């Protein structure tokens, strides 16, 4: 990236506002490529390597004159060779492959790092290695498959259109080296006029399919190309109608604001619920001291019942710590509004490195929790009502369910939601961890699903925390000390309370209830009517 003062910024990645300097207006520059006069000498490749001081890259023989199969972090300019037969005539097509410097750059729109990708006022799109975090999301936004990740530097790289030369009035190195004149450089207006003139000449000489490739789907490009077979741009390795992938719009323009509203809305909803209904706690006074226990679950200990053994509590808090670590390290990557959170970890680059590892830890802990608790989380007939009326009654506190066991239907649904989202976040997170390992559209689709899963999870976890703390006092301590009071268990999980204590539905222990029933029967003469009993 050039630091020349002549380069005013038009826009940059992950900007909130005010990225345009507005100091002076500059004409948009453009490179003109005429594929019909390219001879494949590769002088432009050599010039690019030398001027940008790029490392030597080993060539690969794949049965073609092409230097290597595709672009490389240290090879920004590649002459592509292709043979196509049409009407019995063999055509040997060559095209200079490089960054197209789109007027509406998808790489810039997809990049989550503020200032990592910059578009100057003259139209050149450049990578700022100091701000790049190497996430590779820019590659998912590029319809031309240009940006490359360098394992050595941990940064993305691509053609800069020799911005350092252009900023001082010199044409790019490849244009300077071209021996046939198939490359030219100037203002976009002049290069378009040159291209249209060349297309007209080709059509007049018997090539009616000739066209000037300057796709409107990306706002036009600063690299415009004359194609002899313009009706088949795919023969040259170019998309027919390139545009920014829909995944960029869905993630940046739709899921991001929805996610922010969902998180703010869930916090506001829980606060409103607390102010309206307050905490739900037993009428009887609670023991001042809640013991810590480590034995088997569902065992009565004085006025308390052991609800969560030590292993359950350790796994629960391991899952929670990994989740919140992944959440806090992922939020500044997800939106620049929360970019200040990156300083908690030492910067955005550290967040990018740490986030996937914490996510992997979260998945492992979640699967351990699933294996430990799934036996108690089997959905029963009465639990399915939590998809509708029971959930409303629960939050409105308009009734109680005497058949609630150790976990109610809502807790079970949340349990399966967490397990399912953990799988989704793992699968999509692995793709986003190595976005160039798989072909489009899988990385873009994974990006949308990852963000969507996160938004749902973030909103649900706010409700989960509220219910486990302010809404139901005593619940949080059950996950720190393992025990709950009998009164708490009777109020929130009556069937589990009866099963653990052995009490019958009427409130007496099973033995006492049976004895009382027998005593009543003995004191009542046989054949006495109900009216007589009264």
Describe the secondary structure blueprint for this structure:
Blueprint: E1 9-12, E2 29-34, H1 43-51, E3 78-86, E4 89-97, H2 106-110, E5 117-120, E6 125-127, H3 137-141, E7 148-150, E8 155-157, H4 163-166, H5 173-177, E9 183-187, H6 188-204, E10 211-213, E11 223-227, H7 246-277, E12 299-301, E13 304-306, H8 310-334, H9 348-373, H10 389-396, H11 409-433, H12 442-468, H13 475-478, E14 483-485, H14 486-492, H15 494-501, H16 510-523, H17 530-533
As a percent range, the share of helical residues equals 40-55%
Main sheet, how many strands, which sense, barrel?
4 strands, mixed
Structural class category: alpha+beta
Overall 3D shape: elongated
Provide the gyration radius in Å.
33 Å
* Nearest-integer average pLDDT: 89
Strand ordering within the main sheet: 9-2-11-10
Number of strands: 14
Low-confidence stretches: 508-534
Distance between the termini: 96 Å
**Beta-strand percentage?**
5-15%
- Count up the helices: 17
């Amino acid at each position: 990236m050039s630091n020349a003062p002549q380069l005013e910024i038009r826009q940059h990645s992950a900007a909130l506002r005010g990225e345009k300097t507005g100091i002076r207006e500059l004409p948009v520059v453009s490179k003109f490529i005429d594929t019909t006069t390219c001879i494949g000498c590769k002088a432009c490749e050599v010039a690019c390597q030398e001027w940008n001081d790029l490392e030597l890259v080993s060539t690969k023989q794949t049965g073609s004159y092409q230097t290597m199969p595709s672009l490389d972090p240290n090879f920004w300019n590649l002459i592509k060779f292709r043979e196509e037969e049409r009407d019995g005539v063999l055509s040997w097509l060559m095209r200079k492959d490089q960054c197209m410097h789109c007027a509406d750059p998808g790489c810039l729109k997809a990049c989550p790092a503020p200032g990592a990708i910059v578009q100057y006022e003259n139209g050149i799109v450049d990578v700022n290695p100091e701000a790049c975090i190497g996430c590779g999301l820019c590659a998912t936004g590029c319809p031309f498959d240009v940006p490359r990740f360098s394992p050595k530097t941990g940064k993305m790289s691509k053609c800069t259109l020799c911005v350092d030369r252009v900023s001082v009035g010199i044409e790019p190195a490849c244009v300077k080296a071209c021996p046939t004149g198939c490359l030219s450089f100037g203002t976009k207006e002049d290069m378009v006029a040159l291209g249209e003139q060349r297309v007209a000449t080709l059509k007049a000489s018997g090539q009616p399919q000739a066209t000037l490739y300057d796709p409107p789907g990306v706002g036009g490009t600063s690299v415009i190309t004359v194609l002899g077979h313009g009706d088949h741009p795919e023969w040259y390795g170019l998309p027919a109608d390139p545009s920014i992938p829909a995944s960029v719009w869905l993630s940046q323009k739709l899921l991001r604001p929805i996610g922010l509203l969902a998180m703010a809305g869930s916090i506001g909803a829980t606060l409103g619920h607390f102010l309206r209904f307050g905490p739900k706690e037993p009428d009887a006074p609670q023991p001042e001291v809640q013991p810590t226990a480590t034995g088997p679950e569902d065992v009565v200990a004085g006025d308390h019942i052991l609800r969560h053994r030590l292993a359950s509590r350790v796994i629960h808090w391991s899952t929670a710590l990994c989740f919140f670590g992944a959440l806090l390290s992922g939020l500044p990557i997800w939106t620049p509004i929360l970019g200040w959170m990156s300083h908690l970890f030492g910067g955005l680059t550290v967040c990018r490195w740490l986030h996937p590892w914490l996510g992997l830890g979260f998945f492992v802990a979640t699967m351990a929790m699933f294996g430990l608790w799934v036996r108690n989380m089997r959905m029963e007939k009465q639990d399915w009502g939590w998809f509708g009326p029971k959930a409303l009654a629960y939050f409105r506190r308009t009734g109680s369910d005497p058949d609630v066991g150790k976990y109610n239907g809502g807790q079970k649904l949340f349990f399966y939601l967490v397990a399912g989202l953990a799988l989704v976040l793992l699968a999509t997170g692995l793709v986003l961890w190595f976005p160039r390992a798989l072909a489009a559209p899988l990385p873009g689709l994974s990006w949308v699903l990852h963000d969507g899963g996160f938004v749902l999870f973030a909103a649900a976890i706010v409700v989960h925390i509220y219910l486990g703390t302010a809404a139901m006092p005593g619940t949080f301590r059950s996950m720190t000390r393992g025990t709950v009071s009998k009164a708490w268990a009777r109020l929130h999980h009556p069937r589990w309370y009866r099963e653990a204590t052995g009490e019958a539905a009427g409130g007496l222990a099973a033995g006492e209830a049976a004895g009382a029933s027998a005593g009543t029967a003995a004191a009542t003469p046989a054949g006495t009517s109900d009216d007589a009993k009264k």
